[in-house]
Write a structure and sequence with these properties.
Blueprint: H1 3-15, E1 31-42, E2 45-56, E3 62-71, H2 81-93, E4 102-106, H3 118-126, E5 130-134, E6 155-160, E7 163-169, E8 178-184, H4 188-197, H5 207-224
Parallel strand pairs: 1-4, 4-5
Antiparallel strand pairs: 1-2, 2-3, 5-8, 6-7, 7-8
Helix pairs in contact: 2-3
Amino acid sequence: MKNEELFKREQEKWISKISLKNNFELADIHMVAGIDIAYWTEGKVDYGVCCIVVIDYITKQIIEEVEYWGKIDVPYISGYLAFRELPLIMEATKKLQCKPDLYMFDGNGYLHYRNMGIATHASFYLNKPTIGVAKSYLKIKDTDFQMPKNEMGDFTYIEVDGDVYGAVLRTRKDVKPIFISCGNWIDLETSIKITLHFVEKNSRLPITTRYADLATHASRRKYTQ
């Protein structure tokens, strides 16, 4: 059986278990982790590094940073990126001394062809609520999105066949929007609220995934020198 068929079966077994409802109280969220991955190739071998940055929800100070890098054994298949990323993510989480209450991913969650982007897929292994924060739009079934107003906090829903897959969120005035989707065990309204909570003046991205993104680029430079 081809990898694509195996991956599809694996995702399909989780789909019915996705919950777009909060399984927590916002007051119980103390530590939020941002996750990102960067790749590079040496010869014919692909490598990747996963960086996790854990931030205090109230003070917005960094609590902990970890990374894990290694060879990538899973080939890239469109729509199944989670299988390529998950091994690195799980190894990186093993290094954490703290226990994040929620994870935010540089990528999609429910906003995915099968509603199983990395934020959703990984949730079943992390056993924590997750949010997908994407910098670009993953177009599904030729569905375009409506641009939100040029006001901080304004958003529009992304609907596919009558189902809300995510939101286009304007995090700052006069900057491009980002694309928010539930990962698992959280609703879209809360996902947007938490994302906006972590947005600061110098970026359209929440500091959770922004710091993780910066860390992966620094790590990749370190390992490719």
